[in-house]
Amino acid sequence: MTVTTDQEHRARPAGGSGSRKLLDTVLKVRELAIGAVLVVMLLATQLDNSDFLSQQGIKDLLLNATILVLVAVGQAMVVITRNVDLSVGSTLGISAFAAGDYLSGGGNPLVAVVLAVLLGAALGAVNGLLVSLGRVPALVVTLGTLYIIRGLDSVWVGSRQITASQLPSGFAGFGHDGLSVIPYLALLTAAVLVCVAYYLRAYRGGRDLYALGSNPEAARLAGVPVRRRILTAYVVCGALAGLAGALYLARFGNVDSGTGTGYELTVVSAVVVGGVAFTGGSGTVYGAALGALLLTSINSVLPSIGVSSVWVQAIDGFLLLLAIAVDRVVALRVADLLRKRAAETRSARHA
Amino acid sequence: MSLGNSTVRRVTAVTAATAVMALGIAACGGTTKNSVAKSTPTAGNTASANPNAATRKGLTIAYLPKQVNNPYFTTSDNGGKKAVEALGEKYKEVGTSSGTDTAGQVSYVNSLTQQRVSAIAVSAQDPGALCTGLNQARKSGIKVVTYDSDTNPGCRDVAISQASSVDLGRTEVQLMAQQIGDKGQIAILSAAQTATNQNTWIGYMKDELKKPQYKNVKLVKIAYGNDDAQQSFQQTQGLLQQYPNLKGIISPTTVGIKAAAQYLSGSKYKGKVKLTGLGQPNDMRSYVANGTVQAFELWDPAKLGALAGYAAIALASGQISGAPGQTFTAGDMGKYTIGANSVVVLGKPTVFNKSNIANFHF
C-alpha cells in the first residue's frame, strides 16, 4: 500500500511537468510556424520583386503592421480569458478623433497620445465592468458597446473630420519617420508588446488570465480574483486600442466618424491566426503580433507582385480556417498524448 | 417572491417604454400635420411646363444624401440650404448615417412622402432600390431630383450631374500629363472594382490617353484601394514597388487620393512621383503646401447642392417638367439647360493648386 502511494507521489509531478513542457513546445512550434510562413512569403516576394525588401519596403511593412499589432495584443489578453472585445474598432475611432480634436486646437502631441490612451482605457473599463459584473456573454456586451461608442462618435463628431493640415507637422512626422529602417511607431509597439508579454508570463496577474480562460470555475475556486482580472484585461485592451487610435492619426493624418469601422474583425482574425485559442487559456501576445504582421504583410505582398487585391480577403479567410484547423488537430493530439501518458502511469501503478 | 417582483418590474419597464414610444409617435404626428398644412403639392405630373411661371412660395425641399455626417454631403447640402432659403423656401435634411444602408434610405423616402414635402433631392445609394418609393412620391405630386448619384432615369424628374464623366476623365489625364511632361508610366488608384462612377471615369481616361500627344504616357496598372486608408496605402506601396519607374498616380476617389498623398508625403517618393485626381481641398491642403501634390480637381459640392435645390424649386413651381431642352435659372449660377435623359450638368471641374486652394473650404 505504502509503495503504491509513494509511486503515485512521484508520478504526478513528473507527469505534470512533462505535459507542461509538451504544451510549451507545441505553442512555440505554433508561433515558429507562423514566423516561418511569414519569412518564406516575404523572401519569395523579394525574389519576384527586388524592390520589396528595400529600405522603404521594410519600413512600410513595419508601419503597416504597427496599429493592428497593438490592438491585437490587447485583444489577445481578453481572448486568453475566454472573452472577446468587439468594440476595439469603435474605441480606436473615437480615441483617434479625440486626440486629433485636441491637437487641432493647438495641443501638445504627447498629451494627445495620453488622452487617447486614457479614453480607450475608460471605454475598456466600461466593457470590463459590464462583462465581469453583469455576467453576460462578452460577445453580446461588446457588440452593444461597439454600436454605442460608434453612435456617440457619430453624434459628437458629426460631419467634422481631422485632416493632415490641422495636425502639427512633428506629429505627422512621428507617424512615418524612424531610426533608419525602424519607424518610431514600430519601436513603441515593440516596447508595448514586450511589456505585455512579460506581464502575462511572469506575473501572477498574467498567469491568472490563463487560469481564467482554461477553466473559469476552477480559477474562481482557486481564489483568482475573477472580476478584477477580467477588468484589467479589458482596460489594457481599451488602452491599447486608444493608443492605436493616436498612432492611426499620426500615420494616416485623417480621421472622421467612420474611422475604425469593421476593424474588430481584422483584429480577431489576427489574434486567432496568431494561435490564441478562441476558447481561452492558450496562446501568447507574440503569436497575436505575428498573426497581425502576417495578415498585413499579405496585403502588401499581393499588390507588390501584381496580384489583384480581390484575393486578399479570400486568403485571409483561408488562413483563419487553417489556423483553427491546426489548433484543433494539435489540441486533439495533445489530449490524446496526455490520456496515453495517464494510462501508462496507471498501468505502471497497477503492475 | 423575488420572481414576482422582477416580473412586476419588467411590466413597469415595458409600460414606461410604450409610453415613451407613444409620445415619440405623437410628436412625429404633429410635425407631419404641420408640413401638410404648409405645403400643398401640385397634383399629378404635368408634362408641359411654363418657364415664366412665378416661383411658388412655401415649398419644402427635403435633401436625402447618401450619408449624413459625411463632410462632402454636408457641404453640398449646406449649399442647397443656402439656395433654398435664399428663395424663401423651407429646407430640411434627413438620411442614414451609413452610406450603404439602402433599406434605411428607402424608409426615409417613404416618410418624406407621408410628410408631403414639395420636392426631394436625393443622392441614391442604389440606382434601382429607391425606384418604388420615389415613384410613389412622384405619384402624390412630389418632385424628385437626384444629385451626386443618380437613380434609373425612370424614377426621378431631373438628375444633377456633378460634371460630365467625359470631362472628369479627360481633365484628370490632362492634369497628370502636364505634371510629368507628357512622358512616362502612370497608374490609377481607384476605389472598389465595382464602383460604376470610377469605372466610367477610368474609361474616359483610357480614351483620352489614346490621343497622339499622349503616345509616350503609358497606363501600366489600375489598383483598387476600396476607399480604405490602409488598403489605399498598401496599394500605393505595391504600385511603387512593382513599377520603380512610375511617374505618376491618378486617383479619382477622394479617399484614395488623400491616402496616397499621406503615404507619398512620408516616403522617399515625395515630389518625385506625381499625384493627381479628385480630392477635397480640406483633405489635400497640407500635401499641396508641402509639395507632395501640385494640382488636383473636383466639382464644388456646394454648387452641386445649390443646383439641385434650384432645379427642385423650378420643378415644384411648374417652370420645368424635366423634359430635355427646357431651361431654368439657378440664382447667381446662371441659366442651365436640361440635357438628354433629363440630366443637368454642373459644369467643368475646378482645378485646385497652391495659388487658389486657400479660397476653398470643404
Automatic annotation (TrEMBL), chain A:
It is a multi-pass membrane protein. The complex is composed of two ATP-binding proteins (LsrA), two transmembrane proteins (LsrC and LsrD) and a solute-binding protein (LsrB). This is Autoinducer 2 import system permease protein LsrC. It is found in: Cell membrane. GO terms for cellular component: plasma membrane. CDD domains: TM_PBP1_transp_AraH_like (cd06579). InterPro entries: ABC_transp_permease. Keywords: Cell inner membrane, Cell membrane, Membrane, Transmembrane, Transmembrane helix, Transport. The keyword Cell membrane applies. It comes from the Bacteria. Its main location: membrane. The keyword Manganese does not apply. It comes from Streptantibioticus silvisoli. GO terms for molecular function: transmembrane transporter activity. The chain crosses the membrane at residues 61-80, 110-131, 138-158, 178-200, 230-250, 262-278, 285-305, 311-331. Part of the ABC transporter complex LsrABCD involved in autoinducer 2 (AI-2) import. Probably responsible for the translocation of the substrate across the membrane. Pfam families: BPD_transp_2.
From TrEMBL, chain B:
It is found in: Cell envelope. It holds the Pfam family Peripla_BP_4. One of its GO terms (cellular component) is outer membrane-bounded periplasmic space. Coiled coil: none annotated. Residues 61-319 form the Periplasmic binding protein domain. Residues 1-26 form the signal peptide. InterPro entries: Bact_Solute-Bind_Prot2, Peripla_BP_I, RhaS, SBP_2_dom. PANTHER family: ABC-TYPE SUGAR TRANSPORT SYSTEM PERIPLASMIC COMPONENT-LIKE PROTEIN, D-XYLOSE-BINDING PERIPLASMIC PROTEIN. This is Rhamnose ABC transporter substrate-binding protein. It comes from Streptantibioticus silvisoli.
